[in-house]
Design a protein that fits this description.
A 7-stranded parallel β-sheet has the order 3-2-1-4-5-6-7, with helices on both faces. By secondary structure, it is of the alpha/beta class. The relative contact order is 0.13. α1 packs across α7 and α3 runs parallel beside α4. β5, α4 and β6 form a beta-alpha-beta unit. It has one domain: NAD(P)-binding Rossmann-like Domain (Rossmann fold, 3-Layer(aba) Sandwich), CATH 3.40.50.720. This is SDR family oxidoreductase. GO terms for molecular function: oxidoreductase activity. It comes from Hyphococcus flavus.
């Protein structure tokens, strides 16, 4: 019997690519999204091993209903890929409390809710894998990404704690940190920045940052690089606590870990062009 895995946020991008990749690798995949019709792209793919299910990670009744459907098929889930995520881009001073709460509701509290719902069956089975999709932003936060970066920092911390408390129960936990990936997610973030280009305080900064940011995703690797990391986390005898995708971005994490914050800031400013804004303010 194929191992079964649940993937949240599987309607596009990383989630969709991961669902297809895992199905081709022999997993039985339960692919979820807030609305089942958004999963139509997965119809007939993966050798018939993909089952689309409607599930909203911010709604406990929706989670319960989705898991009941899986249980009614006599399936005990081996793996969980917490991929569902949203973003809010813009100056912290301008982001509303509603925007902040919305990002945390999906990226953190939704992840926790789904994990809590699945843990009893994994503990009873005495085995399982949980893969949380974090972000390079969880360690290297660019300007105007405060809300998203905060949630991904949270994913880092809760994953460490969860990994240690579940080890005695045979359940292994990993974080996959994507860098820039060529998916629609980056386009949505660019559109958010557009709203602040005319801001009387942050407008010029946003324009400079957006000019750099909008070039990153179209030229970035495809989401399959993340899917491959997820597959390794699900199947390796001794999975790593963290994977960076693409692997070439591991150097960025290493630099962040060893360089002083001031040096990191100056490097980032040169990369994203905001050093020019600093110079113009001094003149």
């Amino acid at each position: 019997m194929h191992q079964s895995v649940l993937i949240t946020g599987a309607s596009s991008g990383i989630g969709e690519a991961t669902a297809i990749h895992l199905a081709h690798k022999g997993f039985r995949v339960f692919a979820t999204a807030r609305r089942e019709e958004k999963l139509k792209n997965l119809s007939g793919l993966g050798g018939g091993r993909i089952t689309p299910i409607e599930m909203d990670v911010t709604d406990e009744s929706s989670i319960e209903k989705a898991l009941k459907k899986i249980a009614d098929e006599g399936v005990t889930l081996y793996g969980l890929v917490n991929n569902a995520g949203v973003s809010a881009m813009g100056p912290l001073e301008r982001l509303s409390q509603t925007e902040w709460r919305g990002v945390f509701e999906t990226n953190v509290f939704g992840l926790v809710a789904v994990t809590q719902a699945l843990l009893p069956q994994m503990r009873e089975a005495g085995r399982g894998r949980i893969v949380n999709i974090g972000s390079l932003t969880g360690r290297i936060a660019s300007p105007f990404q405060s809300a998203y970066a905060a949630t991904k920092h949270a994913v880092e911390g809760l994953s460490d704690s969860l990994r240690r408390e579940l080890k005695p129960h045979g359940i292994k936990v990993s974080v996959v940190r994507p860098g820039a990936i060529n998916t629609p997610f980056g386009h949505f973030e660019q559109e958010m920045l557009t709203h602040y280009e005319t801001d009387d305080v942050y407008g010029e900064q946003v324009k400079i940052f957006k000019a750099w940011f909008e070039k990153q995703h179209p030229s970035a690797p495809p989401p399959i690089v993340v899917a491959e990391a997820v597959h390794e986390a699900l199947t390796a005898e001794r999975p790593q606590s963290r994977y960076t995708a693409p692997k070439s971005m591991t150097y960025a994490i290493a630099l962040r870990n060893f360089l002083p914050s001031g040096a990191t800031d100056r490097i980032l400013e040169r990369i994203n062009g905001l050093d020019s804004f600093k110079k113009s303010r001094r003149n």
